[in-house]
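Saturday, quiet lab. Running sequence design on the structure tokens for the scaffold JK sent over.
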């Protein structure tokens, strides 16, 4: 049986490069079933209903404003150290179609803790609907992904090990979700300090939340405490959104 070779597209090369970076990150993973009963009820009263991805991103950024460990990254330049960012930058994976292929691009949302939920949703929708080339971040990704592999690896290594470059190009935390498709990410693959995912919501508002974290930056107890704050923070975000509606 003879198959066929399929050339890697630039967007697939980008995912491969990020997966390689993730393999070099000593990652811990925590999973917790949380009942977001009040948050789910509040969300149901809003029209249109805000996307959970944006709510989670804003809530996590607000928690990170209180827990500085969540805003730290591990860097090796000029020597191994931790760097604490003044604010969070969310990297939210959105699915796009490029030349007939469904691919993932990161929607970069700056300072979601300090901005309204509507602004966060607007940034995500822009990344989801605007022409790929109209977003500077996407143009950089595609440009780098077309370079020879040795040069790509050097550039990504430099970007991830210079903290200010890392926040600008990759973000301080990531969100990727397939819960709307009825599935859950059990083993996160991400080079970021924290990576949030969740599964389908049950009728009673419970959901399995999974968070991967860079063990060089923090221990599991920090992430566990942050997960314990999620229910109240999601509810607070939605209360503010309801008041602004």
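Result came back. Writing it out in full:
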């Amino acid at each position: 049986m003879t198959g066929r070779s399929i050339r890697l597209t630039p967007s697939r090369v980008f995912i491969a490069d990020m997966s390689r970076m993730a393999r070099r990150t000593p990652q811990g993973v925590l999973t917790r079933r949380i009942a977001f009963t009040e948050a789910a009820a509040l969300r149901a009263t809003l029209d249109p209903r805000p996307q959970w991805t944006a709510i989670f991103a804003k809530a996590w950024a607000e928690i990170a404003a209180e827990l500085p460990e969540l805003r730290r990254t591990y860097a090796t330049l000029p020597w191994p150290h931790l760097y604490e960012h003044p604010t969070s930058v969310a990297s939210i994976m959105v699915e796009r179609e490029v030349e007939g292929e469904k691919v993932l691009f990161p929607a970069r949302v700056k300072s979601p803790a300090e901005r309204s939920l509507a602004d966060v949703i607007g940034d995500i929708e822009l990344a989801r609907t605007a022409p790929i080339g109209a977003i500077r971040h996407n143009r950089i990704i595609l440009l780098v992904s077309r370079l020879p592999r040795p040069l790509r690896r050097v550039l990504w290594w430099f970007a991830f090990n210079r903290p200010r470059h890392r926040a600008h190009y990759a973000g301080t935390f990531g969100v990727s979700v397939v819960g709307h498709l009825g599935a859950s990410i059990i083993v996160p693959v991400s080079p970021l300090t924290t990576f949030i995912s969740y599964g389908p919501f049950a009728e009673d508002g419970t959901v399995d939340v999974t968070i991967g974290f860079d063990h060089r930056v923090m221990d599991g107890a920090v992430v566990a405490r942050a997960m314990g704050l999620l229910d109240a923070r999601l509810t607070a975000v939605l209360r503010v959104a309801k008041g602004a509606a």
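Notes for JK: DSSP finds eight helices and eight strands in the chain. The two ends are 60 Å apart (CA to CA). Ask whether to fix the surface positions before the next round.
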